[in-house]
């Protein structure tokens, strides 16, 4: 009898301990190239969450287009980082039942930061307009860079001789070797690849993007002089917002993603101090037009005094893509 009572008591103690102490969770986030900002953000989040008994596996990828589908379909991948224009594009394709379902199920956790559109070219070129008739690397199919570059050409009317669908490392090698004239890379500055793999001796430049048709759809921004050692002057370009997304879970993952969202919101100071420099540009309260926050996150944030829900407005990037698709 005493033995049985001891077992019951131990079981009760274990139960009380398990419901009152924070539980460990194992999650996954899909990011981008290992030399890109998405991947560094994933690593920073993993460091933060480890301090709160959450293991976050950080997976590289080809970028935003792959990430949207990975969060929708891949097991144990609850989070992803994507470009807002990719989400807009997916939501506009109403003819594909799978894409319609993805658009319904993918939810925003937080807006993150503006991703500058880096256009790197030979120093014989002067601007985006000079890409007419040139060979331009637009990223791998499945990357956000690929979709954005295609949209920029559609919006502007500039027609390159060839849009080369290769990854950033191969594109940079081709640019240095003279087989391509320019390459796109959409990522928040400073980009590791452009910092470590280009020098002044390569005779490459960041080309400004000031086309009026493009700046009507994408917000203007500047990559400051000296962001890269080989870049001596400010460069005008445009940007797209990076977004942390999840799936519309209705199980334990809802609780886990909500918990991650709250920890992220409450520990921004730590991330700005210890993470990638781009964390300093993150505004989690930014009213990203046209995107609703995942309710599993919003419920957790409702207990945070400084949090306020943003209104649902028209997304100008989405409208731009809609206009392009209707032409």
Shape field: globular
Overall strand count: 10
CATH fold descriptor of the largest domain:
D-Maltodextrin-Binding Protein, domain 2
Question: What assembly state would you assign to the polypeptide chains in this entry?
Answer: single chain
Helix % is 40-55%
Beta strand % = 15-25%
Our measurement of the CA-to-CA distance between the termini, rounded to an integer number of angstroms, reads 81 Å
Mean pLDDT: 86
Write the element-wise H/E pattern from the N-terminal end onward: HEHEHEHHEEHEHEHEHEEHHHH
Number of domains: 2
Class from helix and strand fractions: alpha/beta
Treating each run of at least 4 consecutive H or I residues as one helix, how many helices? 13
Task: Give the second-level CATH assignment, the architecture of the largest domain.
Answer: 3-Layer(aba) Sandwich
CATH superfamily membership of the largest domain, which one? Periplasmic binding protein-like II
Indicate the radius of gyration in whole angstroms.
22 Å
Major sheet, described briefly?
A: 10 strands, mixed
Give the low-confidence spans: 7-22
CATH class of the largest domain: Alpha Beta
